[in-house]
Amino acid sequence: MIVFRSEVGPDIMMFDEVAQRMMELMGKQKAAQGVVTVEQLPAAIARLKAAAAHDRAQHAGAAADAGDEENAAPPPVGLAQRVLPLVELLEISLRGGKPVTWGV
């Protein structure tokens, strides 16, 4: 379990695999400890939002191809849903002028 923290927002807990994917998307090293500085926040937010938009587009295409909606299984939790809490924390931190850390 990895916890993303900021002095101005709520803690966001994610399983290691998901958190490491978030780090990768933000352009950070997959590490047990790290920081997204205030200066890095805008780029990290943009990268996560772009990944979420791409994920939504992929799922929309797959849903259209699925055809029979009545018998279709519910879609799995996608990247777009997983990035949302972290993006919100990053945006709060940017407004508050505070970095986001994990593992410290």
* Main sheet strand line-up: 2-1-4-3
> Largest sheet at a glance?
4 strands, antiparallel
Distance between the termini: 13 Å
Q: Structural class per helix/strand content?
A: alpha+beta
Strand content: 15-25%
Number of domains: 1
Q: What's the number of extended β-strand segments?
A: 4
Overall radius of gyration: 15 Å
Low-confidence regions: none
Number of helices: 3
What would you say about this model in short?
The protein is of the alpha+beta class. Helix content is 52%, strand content 16%.
What key attributes describe this structure?
4-stranded antiparallel β-sheet; 104 residues; 3 helices; alpha+beta
Describe the overall structure.
The chain has 104 residues and is α+β, with helices and mostly antiparallel strands. The chain has 3 helices and 4 strands, in the order E-E-H-E-H-H-E. Strands 2-1-4-3 form a 4-stranded antiparallel beta sheet.
Which secondary structure elements does this structure contain, and how are they paired or packed?
Layout: E1 2-6, E2 9-14, H1 16-25, E3 34-36, H2 41-66, H3 79-96, E4 100-102
Antiparallel strand pairs: 1-2, 1-4, 3-4
